[in-house]
Amino acid sequence: MKKYRCKVCGYVYDPAEGDPDSGAAPGTDFKDLPEDWLCPLCGVGKDQFEEVED
Questions:
Q1: What is the Rg, in whole angstroms, of the alpha carbon atoms belonging to the chain?
Q2: Average pLDDT estimate for 21-27
Q3: What is the pLDDT of residue 19?
Q4: pLDDT, tens digit, 9 for 90 and up, residues 25-52
Q5: Which is it for the CA torsion 43, 46, 49, 51, positive or negative?
Q6: pLDDT value for 34
Q7: What is the model's pTM?
Q8: Comparing C-alpha atoms, which of 15, 18, 17, 4 is closest to residue 47?
Q9: How far apart are CA 1 and CA 21, in angstroms?
């Protein structure tokens, strides 16, 4: 699973860690996050994230 970086604040969503505070269990792929999921640091939507190249 790929990581995604917020273009606004630089937060990196790592599917191995998920976002438990927002209800995304570890192992949740970015594409499987709800459409209304928001960046936990700055509050922007999924459309402001870009795939991180390994």
A1: 10
A2: 96
A3: 97
A4: 999 999 999 999 999 999 999 999 999 9
A5: positive
A6: 96
A7: 0.92
A8: 4
A9: 20
Rounded-to-integer distance, Cα 35 and Cα 4, Å: 15
Q: Show the tokens assigned to 48.
A: 């402001």
CB-neighbour burial class of residue 48 (10 A; exposed 0-12, middle 13-18, buried 19+): middle
Six token digits for residue 29: 């792929």
Across 32-41, b (16+ Cβ under 10 Å) vs e yields ebeeebbbee
Beta carbons within 8 Å of 53's beta carbon, 6+ residues apart: none
6 strand-pairing partners? 49
Confidence of residue 53 (pLDDT cuts 50, 70, 90): confident
